[in-house]
Write a structure and sequence with these properties.
tt1808, chain A
Length: 185
Amino acid sequence: MQLQKNEQSYTYADYCAWNDDKRWELIEGVPYAMAPGPSQEHQSISRDLFGQLYNFLKGKPCKLFSAPFDVRLNAETDDDTVVQPDILVVCDASKLDGKSCVGAPDFIVEITSPSSLRLDRLIKLLQYQRAGVREYWIVEPESKSVSVHLLENGKYTITAYGDDEIAPVHVLEGCEIILRDVFDV
């Protein structure tokens, strides 16, 4: 949900100064209030997906994070876009500053909710593509499906998977997610 569009544009520094006990994302200077708390189904899907990724990445150099964890997509320029994906993987340790990811992670997962559909499918998708996120998954609990967006020549190509399939994580060679286990809430 967008706070409101006005003439004021905010940056990461402004975002860090907010202390109203709400979670926000900032996209091109516009604040978006995040839903109060994820549903039980959302939490279960996130836990099971995170678990499979954690088991695969254990002992490997890539780092796995879950929300809330700030991703500053354009920190090197305007620093006015800060998102908190449900799950993310960063393989370049130099992008981690101790409290956020500075630049594009290699892999992002967003689990949709009715209030986040437009943001996840349109607004964030374009931001992730522009920032160079190599692989972006949109997980849809209602349809028990995953849309995998792979960055090729600056644009995303899309492949869809259902809950009875195994989805490869292309940026993590050898990693496959058993979707039946993710959606079996």
